[in-house]
Design brief:
Elements (H helix, E strand, L loop, with lengths): L2 H16 L5 H17 L3 E5 L2 H14 L11 E3 L4 H11 L6 H7 L5 E6 L5 H13 L2 E6 L5 H5 L2 E4 L5 H25 L41 E5 L1 E14 L6 E14 H9 L5 E5 L5 H12 L2 E5 L8 E7 L2 E7 L11 H13 L3 E5 L9 H13 L2 E4 L13 E2 L3 H8 L7 H15 L3 E5 L5 E4 L7 E3 L14 H14 L4 H17 L23 H19 L4 E6 L6 H11 L4 E7 L1 H8 L8 H9 L6 E5 L5 H7 L3 E4 L11 H6 L3 E4 L8 H10 L1
Parallel strand pairs: 1-2, 1-3, 3-4, 4-5, 6-9, 6-13, 7-11, 9-10, 13-14, 14-15, 15-16, 19-20, 19-22, 20-21, 22-23
Antiparallel strand pairs: 7-8, 11-12, 16-17, 17-18
Helix pairs in contact: 1-8, 2-8, 3-8, 5-6, 9-15, 11-12, 13-14, 15-16, 16-17
Length: about 700
């Protein structure tokens, strides 16, 4: 035998020895999970150095192109191939960060990050694994012999037991092809195949998407990417009773309010409320909870069934909890918790837990709505939740008496009071105090992203305890007495749904703040009494912030000012290009009373009045600019040619027009007078008009 033949024989022996040691079951599972990426909007990021970089690019080419059979393309990026990013990051941050920074830029919760290394010791891959865990991505590794540092950092590993690096790389190529074969088989099994390349015709474009913060009520960005927008809510369910009465006197024998008359309404509470609110946004929802075998449990089951929420009942070995709010004059006077002792969870045993595991493994996202009554602390369920968190984004809405979030949780959503309790911090409700509370939670439960809610002040998102936070403010609902009950559940559910649709946490939190604000403005839990509209798209039944909630808030504001004997001032117009004349008009109008409400022509209304080239600025943006002015308290958008309907709803004491109407008959004057108001004209600001601004822009 020649030396060359001996070398070849040794090489083949090493290869044939290593191949049978591969974890083929895990490789097949990876292939099946890669197939799912083509349906749920998630993507694969792959990184490696040298020969592993070539293997990484080989894999992504098979996914974006095809392996053996025709199928839709799957989103996959090979990070080393981004040459400009690689050289810029290496130059500015060092080669150890070349993949980590790209992971932080591109990876979203639930995405898969696959790291390929013969040694399992490459510093840039170790940093990438840590970055992937920080953003909530699932981490896989293909390495040489174990143990090695990379294998200990990731969620799942396939190792090759071989001494020669070349043998390891040969086996990695086999793994790549086996994954692709399993992926093709999984795609074929669900019948999701594409026509031959030469016979393709353009497909129907997906529904238009919006960027965050998207207008509430529209289909969220990424919802058209697949069907895994289903949400699984896990947590404690109870029945909420709201008794709405009236208070007209104080008890004669002690200083207590006397509530008389009224009606009692029942609705789902706790995790059940979170599930119902999410279902009303148009997503398939399954609730994993524990219900008692009692009348209250039956009532809850009926309410959940009516809301089209599927239920996996782990079984509660005791009565279902009931919480009652006594309310009057739009305020909660007292809350009664009838079952403070929490019965054991898990009466239904292993069969129910197996069912829960099945739905959690197929979830587009998971929301744990922990109310401290035992479901989120159930040992068997926690193990399943930790596994689910590796596959899909998991949002944990904590409770001071509840369980610690499971590993791989993407985002936790405490409010500022809960965060201070978790971190054992004192402090007030200032932004600085809330940021420090979020940092403390991130260090206590980290690495984890913290979306700390600040009641009417919005939210703070902390992606890293050592980096500046993202602050998302919100406007306080105008007028009236709002009922914030359920706002936290609405926020967390919307956040989880947006993550399932592929949004970044920053996008999802901004959208959730806006959606929760609209929910409160629409009446909070009272909105459950109104059946949702059905337009066939996600977000169905979600209160619209613009213009419906804006209009409702303006009317509530006017009613509140009237009730306390104040003066409501209103002004109308197109305000297409806001200029100094508009600003001065509104400032003068605001000085005439206790609030100023602007009646704004809609886009269609302006087009009818001024022609098809107008408006220049859409109504949503005009509304946003007007509401930002200190002089404007609220905006009502009207679609008619005149603001008569808005004037009837607002009943302004003063209707204001600009000085260019001086000496002219004002169309709205008769209506305003009939409602007990007065029309006035404020001084004209010369030199400013929208038409002249448009003409000047055209001649530049």
């Amino acid at each position: 035998m020649t030396a060359d033949t001996s070398t070849a024989t040794d090489y083949l022996e090493q290869l044939t020895t290593a191949l049978p040691e591969l974890d083929l079951l895990r490789v097949a599972d990876w292939g099946e999970r890669l197939a799912q990426l083509g349906t749920d909007g998630r993507r694969l990021l792959v990184a490696g150095n040298g020969g592993s970089a070539a293997q990484a690019q080989h894999l992504t080419a098979e996914l974006v192109g095809r392996f053996q059979t025709e199928r839709p393309p799957i989103s996959a990026l090979s990070l080393h191939a981004e040459t400009s990013s690689v050289t810029a990051i290496s130059n500015d941050y060092g080669y150890e960060q070349v993949f980590a920074r790209q992971v932080r830029a591109h990876a979203r919760p639930g995405d898969i990050v696959l790291l390929m290394s013969g040694s399992g010791r490459s510093a840039n891959l170790l940093c990438a694994a840590e970055a992937a865990r920080e953003v909530g991505a699932v981490t896989w590794a293909l390495t040489g012999p174990a143990p090695n540092p990379l294998a200990t950092l990731v969620d799942e590993t396939v190792t090759v037991t071989a001494e020669a690096l070349s043998t390891v790389q040969e086996c990695h190529l086999v793994v790549v092809h086996l994954m692709c074969a399993a992926m093709d088989a999984a795609v074929a099994a669900r019948g999701d195949t594409a026509p031959d390349a030469g016979d393709r015709t353009p497909s129907t474009p997906p529904p238009s998407s919006v960027s965050s913060p998207e207008p509430v009520g529209e289909r969220p960005s990424g919802a058209a990417r697949g069907d895994r927008t289903n949400l699984v809510v896990v947590g404690d369910a109870f029945l909420d009773r709201d008794h709405l009465g009236r208070v007209e006197r104080v008890a004669s024998d002690e200083p207590a309010l006397v509530v008389t008359g009224g009606t009692t309404h029942i609705r789902p509470g706790g995790a059940a409320l979170a599930a119902v609110l999410s279902a009303r946004q148009g997503y398939p929802v399954t609730l994993v909870t524990a219900l008692g075998q009692d009348t209250v449990g039956d009532q809850l089951r009926t309410l959940l069934d009516e809301a089209r929420v599927k239920v996996v009942d782990l079984g509660l070995d005791g009565p279902t909890a009931v919480k009652t709010r006594i309310r009057a004059a739009g305020r909660t006077l007292m809350m009664l918790d009838e079952h403070d002792v929490c019965p054991p969870v898990g009466r239904e045993g292993k069969a129910a837990l197996a069912t829960a595991r099945g739905v959690l493994m197929e979830a587009g996202s998971v929301l744990v709505s922990d109310y401290g009554r035992g479901v989120a602390a159930h040992t068997g369920l926690r193990s399943v939740l930790a596994e689910a968190a590796r596959r899909s984004p998991l949002v944990w809405d904590p409770h001071p008496r509840g369980a610690v979030p499971v590993p791989h949780t993407a985002v936790v959503t405490p409010n500022n009071r809960e965060a201070r309790m978790v971190a054992s911090l004192a402090g007030g409700d200032t932004l600085s105090d809330d940021v420090e509370a979020a940092r403390a939670v991130a260090r206590e439960w980290g690495p984890i992203q913290v979306a700390l809610t600040r009641h009417e002040h919005g939210a703070v998102l902390l992606a890293d305890a050592d980096l500046p936070p993202l602050v998302i403010p919100t406007k306080v609902a105008a007028g009236g007495k709002t009922d914030p009950c359920g706002a936290g559940d609405f926020f967390a559910g919307h956040l989880a749904a947006m993550l399932a649709c592929g949004q970044l946490p920053s996008e999802a939190v901004a959208s959730a703040v806006e959606a929760a604000s609209a929910y409160v403005a629409a009446g909070g839990p009272r909105s459950l009494n109104n059946p949702p509209a059905d337009d066939g798209s996600p977000m169905t039944g979600l209160p619209s912030a613009k213009p419906a909630a804006s209009t409702q808030g303006a009317i509530e504001l006017a009613d509140a000012v009237h009730a306390r004997g104040g003066t409501v001032v209103a002004a109308g117009g197109c305000f297409d290009l806001l200029h100094a004349g508009h600003v001065r008009l509104l400032e003068q109008a605001r000085q005439l009373g206790d609030c100023l409400i602007v009646c704004l022509n809609s886009d269609d209304s302006i087009s009818r009045l001024k022609g098809p080239s107008r408006p220049i600025v859409p109504a949503a943006q005009r509304t946003l600019v007007l509401e930002a002015l200190a002089s404007v308290d609220a905006v009502v958008v009207f679609d008619e040619d005149t603001p008569e309907a808005a004037i009837r709803a607002l009943r302004p004491a003063i209707w204001v027009k600009g000085g260019d109407y001086a000496g002219m008959e004002i169309p709205e004057d008769k209506l305003v007078t009939s409602l007990g108001g007065r029309t006035v004209v404020v001084p004209f600001v010369a030199g400013w008009s929208t038409s002249s601004l448009i003409e000047s822009a055209r001649t530049l």
